[in-house]
Amino acid sequence: MKKRNMIRSALSLLLAMAFCLSAAACSGNQTTPEQVQESPTAEPAAPEATAQEQKTAEPVVEEKTVQETAQAALPVKALRPKQVEENPYMAKSDANIHHDGYNTDSTDEILPIGIYPEINVSYETTNANASPAIYFDSYGHAVVPLLGGIAIRDLNVEETRTLGYFSPKQHDGGGYVIQSSYTFLDAENRIVCPTSNNHVLMLRATDEAGNVLPTFEKVLDIDIKAAAEAVLGKTLEQNLLSVVFDYEGNLWFATGGFRIYPERGQQGVIGYIARTAIDAILSGEQANLAEAVFVHELTPGEGAENGIAASKDGAVILTNQNCYLLRAENGVNVVWCTPYESVGAKVSGEGDKTTGGGLAWGGGCSPTLTPNLVLFTDNQDPVNLLALDMKTGKVVASCPVLANLPEGYQVAVENSAIVYDDGEGTVSTIVCNWFGAGNAGLADPNSDSSIQSYANIYDRNWLMKGNVMIAPGVERVDTVKTADGYEMKSIWCRNDLSDTSILKLSTATGYIYGYVQDVNTSMWQYILLDFETGETVFTMDVSNKYGYNNMAIGMYAGNSGNALYCPTGYLELLRLQDRFVYLPEMPYRKVDLDKAARNVLSQEQFTADGGAGNIMGWRNTVTVRNVHPNTTVAIRMNNLSGDASQLKLYAYGTDGKLTEVARELWMITGEGGQAVTALTEGTLYELRITVADGSALDLSEAEREIRLSVVLGK
Predict the structure, then answer these.
(1) DSSP secondary structure string, 3-60?
(2) Less CB within 10 Å around the terminal CB: N or C of the chain?
(3) What is the DSSP letter of 379?
(4) Within 13 Å, how many C-alpha atoms sit on residue 540's CB side?
């Protein structure tokens, strides 16, 4: 199978190189007026670039360093879990576009590591675009934008299927759309949504048992702009942009857009709605918003351009001019306000290899937190990464990033940075250049940059010609605690990668995940970077068609431990998966990967559930349908080491407890089924288990279906 995959990969590469200048057309659906403001995803695919355009496009790569790898399983390089204190008012899941309230863009979930990898697809037949801005509730449901509203959808079927939804047009009289970029899930799995008409909604999407409601119930609706204007005594010229709960349940909000020009003098605010009012509304009572909405007036021309972060210290809001730490103390307490510098909105100039620009006037990326620091980039030339002390707001470290690009390129860090705190004094930040993907039309004084539409935000040439139209650059910078404070240093920099996806870090695997276009071959591909070195260690080709761009909004880590979702401009939602489970006695049968999961199980939980000794590897859960008597299930894993005879296998029962599995029912083998004794970390082995329908290992009540959940101990 490996040899066959290698041959297939080689043939694919040759074909891609031969046809990279193809001008074959692929049509896109038309957008209705209701869909136009639906997140940065609503424009249909632009006409494909002509062959002549593709031939004359200049590559932006200085040198080719991406490996043309035969796909082999990558060794697990697990990092410590991310240092994020749980917000009691947010869902216990990757609940927003940046995964958590700190905006870390990292996940503790397992992601694919190249174990017989494959790309599967879910086709869009209802929405104008493949599902963007995906977040997951505590039940594992995917929450996504849909036709100007919000929905829970099955993303793992051939045609994406809606399980339940809320449509402003159908269910609330229309006239607005949900702004999905800064929507999030609360602790009760309710969906909290800012809207294009300056309201915030809270939608009940599931019942008490986690079943999806066909039509979501609107349980809260507050006109934030009107309430803020009443308190302020002034008309607000900026629109609502982003919202978040702090650790006391107050709902913080900020007005602004993706580009706020100070000289235009638009009035904006930052503020919050008190938790007492929210609870009263949810209980069916009347709330006096005049006594529950608190605002801080911004200087005219100042406004937010990104999302809000929150920790136990308060809410952190980055405007186009200042960074704030705010607390709710019967009013907005500005704990500190730290100004920063910007050269202003960046656009392509004469001689540039790009035609678009950046998004923000000020710092482009949302602020990201650690327990002790606030990190963001300014918008100077060169761009600097800034680290602020969480308690005081003092800049404790800074350094230029992406400062050595080839001539003809500018820098704008618009996607949120990955920030990983190892808990031992080092905070790693991965920043990515985004310059060129932004719509030059945002400079128009009549442009409303708060409108989160694809047409409004993104450069058409990038849509048509791909990543040759954006500036390259991905860099890792570490902020290290020293005896005297902090110091910053560059660890690695990649000037050969042009990327608009929001890169993701999996602490469970130790790799950075991206979706880029190889500008030499025009091939869009999934890539994995080694966190420590920045080296590309895995690539998997998708297509050289322009419409397979990632829609400039990034990828989303599923919670199954085996799916990395990426929306494309061709109405296809891709998911990268490992074929880590199969049936060796029936190789023709493919186990449904969407019914197989790998999850990190802590030592504490392993012991509490009944396991003895030390946990080894991950918890693996598999469902097999239409089973035959005494079916053998093989689970592939490469994170084992030591003496195989010392291993014990534990299985979860219907009571949620672990029991040891009899040794005659399982074994560790090499690929092909040969018995092994000495295990080497990084080598691919198989855990082979004999199961039967209705046996003690079977968690499924359905006939001719087996569901088992197992973990190794030592």
Answers:
(1) HHHHHHHHHHHHHHHHSTT-------PPPPGGGTTSSTT-SPPPPPPPHHHHHHPPP-
(2) N
(3) B
(4) 23
What is the domain count for the chain? 2
Please give the single-letter amino acid code of residue 141. Answer: H
Q: How many CA atoms lie within 13 A of 303 on its CB side?
A: 29
CATH number of the domain that residue 142 is part of: 2.130.10.10
On whether the CB atoms of residues 255 and 233 are closer than 8 A, the answer is no
The CA distance from 613 to 32, in Å, is 59
Domain boundary among 578, 607, 625: 578
SS3 state of residue 70: coil
* Residue 570, amino acid: Y
Q: How far apart are CA 238 and CA 301, in angstroms?
A: 9
Regarding whether 519 and 634 lie in a shared domain, the answer is: no
Q: Which one-letter DSSP state was computed for residue 675?
A: B
| Model pTM score | 0.88
Residue 452's pLDDT is what? 63
Within 8 A by CB and 6+ apart from 117, the residues are 71, 538, 540, 576, 577, 578, 579
> Looking at the structure, do residues 562 and 612 belong to the same domain, yes or no?
no
- Shared domain check, 560 and 585: no
Cα 5 to Cα 8, 9, 167: the distances in Å are 5, 6, 44
Q: Which of 578, 607, 627 is the last residue of a domain?
A: 578
Q: Name the 3-class secondary structure at 322.
A: strand
Pair (497, 513) in one structural domain: yes
Please give the Cα distance from 611 to 635 (Å, whole number): 20
Please choose, from the candidates 243, 99, 260, 96, the residue with its C-alpha nearest in 3D space to the C-alpha of residue 184: 96
Secondary structure class of 290 (helix, strand, coil): helix
Domain containing residue 179: 2-578
* C-alpha dist (Å) from residue 570 to 147, 301, 304, 375, 476: 17, 38, 32, 35, 32
Residues 588 and 460 grouped into a single domain? no
Mean pLDDT by 10 residues, the chain (714 residues): 38 35 31 36 34 34 35 89 93 82 92 97 90 87 93 96 96 92 92 96 96 98 97 96 96 94 96 97 94 97 95 97 97 98 93 90 93 97 97 98 92 92 96 92 81 77 88 97 96 94 93 94 96 97 91 82 93 96 93 96 96 96 89 94 95 96 96 92 95 91 93 96
**Coil, strand or helix at 361:** coil
- CA proximity to 191, closest of 178, 176, 208: 178
Q: What does the block give as tokens for 247?
A: 């650790």
Taking the C-alpha atoms of residue 135 and residue 559, their distance in angstroms, rounded to an integer, is 10
Cβ neighbours, 10 Å, residue 4:
8
Nearest CA to 96 among 286, 368, 375, 373? 368
**Cα angle 614-620-621, degrees, rounded to a multiple of 5:** 140
pLDDT for res 48: 35
For 407, residues 6+ apart whose C-beta sits below 8 A from its C-beta are none
Q: Which two tokens stand for residue 35?
A: 């869909």
d(CA 485, CA 518) in angstroms, rounded, equals 40
Looking at residue 32, its pLDDT comes to 33
Which residues are CB-contacts of 270 (< 8 A; sequence separation ≥ 6)? Answer: 252, 253, 254, 255, 295, 296, 298, 304, 317, 319, 324, 326, 332
- Domain identity same for 231 and 252: yes
Residue 233 neighbours by CB under 8 Å, 6+ apart: none
Same domain, 637 and 569: no
Contacts of 607 (CB under 8 A, 6+ apart): none
Three-state DSSP class for residue 456:
helix
- Mark whether 558 and 612 lie in a shared domain: no
